[in-house]
Amino acid sequence: MNTITFMTGLLTFYIKGEISVEQNFLKLKLPNVILTFIPFGAEKHNIPVNQISSVASNFKLNIKELLFGILELVLAIICFASLNAFCIFLGIVLLILSASAILRGIIVVLEVDSSAGATYIVPFLVFEKDKAFQAEKIINDIVTDRLNDTNSRQVVENQTNILVDALNKR
């Protein structure tokens, strides 16, 4: 069983997403959050390996998150210009939220397509892109193994070669 755990957000470093492969199933567990830092359940998918048609990982730019993060950064700078203690505290909070939003704006997405037409999207933070590529490789290897097992020409050819070798040694 291969399991890959990954962070789903900068502020929610304690909440981990999970991709695991168990025999004939790919299991995805993607935690849900409210207001970017409050945990609220998880989205779970069990996908039969024989229904996976393709896997791809891509860099994505989420313009809304990026612009929202930049707006929060500007508001934090404005708050720091004030000498009011509450505004400085608010500026620190906005600065932390803006860093999180900007990092969520640049992500690596793992897309798992099923033969039924469903697409499962798993977002990774940009600094955990190696885990996305590792998950893609593991899933592709499993799909390749399944296709090799169900390729009747290849199976018959292997059995024939084994039989011929056994007869030649006789």
Largest sheet: 4 strands, antiparallel
Helical content stands at 40-55%
**CA-atom Rg in angstroms:** 23 Å
Name the helix and strand elements from N-terminus to C-terminus, one letter apiece: EEEEEHHEEHH
Shape: rod-shaped
Q: List the total number of helices.
A: 4
Mean pLDDT comes to 88
Unreliable stretches covering 5 or more consecutive residues: none
Q: In what order do the strands lie side by side in the largest sheet?
A: 1-2-3-4
User: Helix/strand/pairing class, anyone?
Assistant: alpha+beta
What is the terminal-to-terminal distance? 41 Å
Instruction: Supply the number of structural domains.
Output: 1
Folded structure, characterized:
The protein has 170 residues and is α+β, with helices and mostly antiparallel strands. It has one domain. The protein has four helices and seven strands. The strands form two sheets. It has a four-stranded antiparallel β-sheet, covered by helices on one side. Strand 6 and strand 7 form a beta hairpin. Helix 1 runs antiparallel to helix 2. The chain is rod-shaped, with a radius of gyration of 23 Å.
